[in-house]
Design goal:
6% helix; Jelly Rolls; mainly beta
Length: 218
């Protein structure tokens, strides 16, 4: 980790405490619904109810251009997500609004079949862009996967799954805005175009664990 720190990496989760995190729309970490043990940050099951148990958690800090890496492990049929450029300005019910790297068991969760052309599957930009991936690069429930989101200062964004780039787009471009127009996000003005925002881990009511969450500002 010393080498990583010298290279500008910062651990977002210290493996032992909730330091640096709070509940979305809260000033403290949720009292229930999340657990920290064995170096893992786990959202607990509440029968698939979105933001119903502990609710989403967000970084206290906000980020603009960054390289974010995280390991995740889902239980069979699970749904969660890592969101970015979360401003918490919408004050909506349910999960807080932001660009979402989908964390999903594609084979068992029905959301994989919804949306348009597979844009709600694992590692996709949820409801906007499908992740192009081969099943042999997906580690199945109970095994760790590594996700990565890169956002350059020029607003070029890339999603990776287990070291393979699965999609890229330009935040705020005409093509991006046209995708928003036909998505569920059309109701939010300038969706996903904030200058900076929080990183969010989603409580979608299914058990999913995260570890090795680290970020490097670009």
């Amino acid at each position: 980790m010393l080498y990583e720190k010298k290279s500008g990496w910062e651990l977002l989760f210290d493996g032992k405490t909730s330091a640096g995190w709070a509940g979305a729309y809260k000033d403290h970490f949720p009292e229930k619904g999340w657990k920290i043990e064995n170096g893992e940050l786990t959202v607990l099951s509440s029968e698939g109810k979105e933001a119903n148990n502990g609710g989403d958690i967000v970084t206290v800090k906000e980020y603009s251009a960054f390289d974010l890496s995280f390991d995740f492990k889902f239980t069979p049929g699970a749904n969660s997500g890592v969101k970015y450029f979360v401003t918490l300005s919408e004050k909506n019910t349910g999960s807080a609004i932001g660009l979402e790297y989908q964390v999903l068991d594609d084979s068992l969760h029905p959301d994989a079949k919804l949306g348009r052309d597979g844009n709600r599957t694992l590692a996709s930009l949820y409801d906007l862009i499908k992740a192009e991936k081969q099943s042999r690069f997906i580690h199945q429930p109970g095994q760790w996967n590594t996700g990565r989101i890169v956002v350059t200062p020029e607003n070029h964004v890339e999603h990776y799954l287990n070291g393979i780039k699965v999609l890229e787009y330009e935040r705020g471009s005409q093509a991006y805005r046209e995708l928003v127009e036909i998505s569920k996000y059309v109701i939010w003005k300038n969706f996903g175009e904030a200058v900076e925002g929080h990183i969010l881990l989603q409580d979608h009511g299914n058990e999913v664990s995260y570890r090795s969450i680290k970020i490097r500002k670009l």
